């Protein structure tokens, strides 16, 4: 699982809303490294970036994902060993821009749906990777 998370070029394959990756810093996922991505659907694509705020290799990533004009979010990804593999949890919260003004009562169900789909995509990549 960590191999997939630490390969920035796979980001648009599992992150819901990410359409393409324009560039990935060579030192991803070290603190300060960025992924330069586009969000949306063509022709309405917005270029933005995601930055690593904290990294504990193999167990935790804290990201600042930008997606203007909606704003920015903190995304925490944790991995823990489980009996049958790895348990991965994604927690996301809007922290800047108009998205941060949306009450958590509204944010949480939408972000939960998005992150369940992201986890499903991650599982497909991990399970079918050579």
TrEMBL record:
Domain of life: Bacteria
Name the UniProt record assigns to this protein: SRPBCC family protein
